[in-house]
């Protein structure tokens, strides 16, 4: 048999249950925060918008959407070899990211219940959405004879502490970039149905509307805390989180470009479009955005992605550990230099562009 047609071997913690991917700087994270600080926030200056968003959450537009239909009931063995491995990795990463949101939002809903009922209900309803997404993705993995043990993941995954304002930056961007990723794939496959190799993509249009509403919620919260989106420190942090989200996606996706090729997309072109759209969207609330159309922006991401590919090759090599560590250093330095250069590239001042006065 040709090697590329063999089914990939995945590490399992028990039969049919995939071992979680190893934590790296590019893998989805689980978060926790200062719940007391969040409970003490004064949200009165934008409470009307938050209540309007709450009504949208209560409407639960997608309550009947995430139901598997007859198209799933078939063998998926024809998705094989490297494509199968990349597809399972895509489902795992997506499931882990959605489950991370569920855990954070559920805990926020529980902790804020008595001190900030409005925010608590919003977080609980968002956790409902994320649970559906994670469950749907995990069920999709079972079509490839694997699933994640989400209970095991809850206990075994490391949690990253972020102060509330950093949670807002990170989750806002996560939800908005999720929207643009899903809708871009959906529109592409709507135009090229011959590339729709698996039915989950048909669900992306409604799915991404959940992501969009969640992002709008975090935008509304940030507007209740003016310092989060106005002072000089906010400008530095917004640049940092924008660049972190964009670079992480770019390095991950170019490393898995064969997955996107399997659905008829060029990973690089896809990421550039998603970055431009997400950056533009962030400009509606962030005080600055990145100059992603500068000719050096993508060039530097390309250099970082090439170094990341070499870094991965070293990690998978059979070199002794000390030699492997030394072999990694030049590639780590290259990535670090390119990201630092992108961070210090002059941003676009959106406060001046929007004509806002504080």
3D architecture notes:
The chain is globular. Helix 2 (47-59) packs parallel to helix 4 (117-142), helix 2 (47-59) packs antiparallel against helix 7 (204-224) and helix 11 (295-315) packs antiparallel against helix 12 (321-343). Strands 1-2 form a two-stranded antiparallel sheet. Strands 3-4 form a two-stranded parallel ribbon. The chain starts with 11 loop residues before the first strand and ends with a helix. The protein has helices at 35-39, 47-59, 81-112, 117-142, 150-156, 164-191, 204-224, 232-255, 257-262, 267-282, 295-315, 321-343, 350-354, and strands spanning 12-14, 17-18, 30-32, 159-161, 288-289, 348-349. The protein is mainly alpha-helical and 358 residues long.
- Percentage of β-strand residues: under 5%
Q: Which series of helices and strands comes N to C?
A: EEEHHHHHEHHHHHEHHEH
Strand order of the largest sheet: 1-2
Helix percentage range: 55-70%
Query: Globular, elongated, flat, extended or rod-shaped: what is the shape?
Result: globular
Helical segment count: 13
Largest sheet: 2 strands, antiparallel
- Averaging pLDDT over every residue, what do you get? 92
Low-confidence stretches: 1-6
The separation of the N and C termini measures 68 Å
What is the assembly state of the chains in this entry?
A: single chain
SSE class? mainly alpha
Rounded Rg: 21 Å
- Give the tally of β-strands: 6
């Amino acid at each position: 048999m040709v090697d590329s047609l063999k089914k990939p071997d995945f590490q399992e913690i028990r039969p049919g249950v995939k071992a979680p991917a190893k934590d790296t700087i590019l893998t989805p994270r689980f978060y926790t925060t200062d719940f007391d600080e969040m409970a003490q926030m004064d949200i009165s200056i934008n409470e009307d918008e938050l209540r309007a968003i709450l009504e949208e959450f209560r409407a639960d537009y997608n309550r009947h959407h995430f139901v598997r239909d007859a198209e799933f009931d078939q063998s998926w063995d024809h998705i094989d070899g490297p494509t199968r491995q990349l597809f399972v990795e895509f489902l795992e990463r997506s499931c882990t990211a959605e489950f991370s949101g569920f855990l954070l939002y559920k805990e926020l809903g529980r902790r804020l219940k008595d001190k900030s009922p409005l925010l608590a209900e919003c977080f609980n309803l968002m956790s409902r959405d994320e649970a559906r997404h994670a469950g749907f993705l995990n069920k999709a993995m079972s079509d490839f004879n694997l699933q994640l043990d989400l209970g095991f993941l809850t206990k075994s995954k490391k949690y990253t502490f972020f102060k509330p304002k950093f949670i807002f930056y990170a989750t806002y961007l996560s939800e908005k970039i999720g929207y643009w990723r899903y809708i871009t794939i959906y529109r592409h496959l709507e135009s090229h149905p011959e590339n729709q190799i698996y039915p989950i993509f048909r669900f992306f249009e409604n799915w991404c509307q959940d992501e969009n509403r969640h992002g709008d919620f975090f935008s509304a919260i940030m507007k209740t805390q003016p310092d989060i989106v106005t002072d000089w420190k906010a400008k530095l942090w917004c640049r940092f989180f924008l660049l972190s989200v964009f670079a992480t996606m770019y390095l991950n996706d170019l490393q898995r470009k064969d997955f996107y090729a399997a659905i008829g997309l060029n990973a690089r072109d896809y990421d550039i479009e998603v970055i431009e759209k997400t950056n533009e969207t962030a400009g509606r609330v962030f005080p600055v955005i990145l100059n992603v159309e500068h000719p050096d922006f993508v060039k530097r991401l390309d250099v970082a992605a090439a170094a990341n590919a070499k870094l991965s090759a070293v990690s998978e090599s059979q070199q002794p550990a000390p030699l492997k560590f030394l072999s990694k250093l030049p590639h780590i330095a290259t990535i670090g230099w390119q990201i630092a250069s992108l961070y210090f590239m002059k941003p676009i001042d959106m406060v001046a562009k929007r004509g806002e006065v504080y």
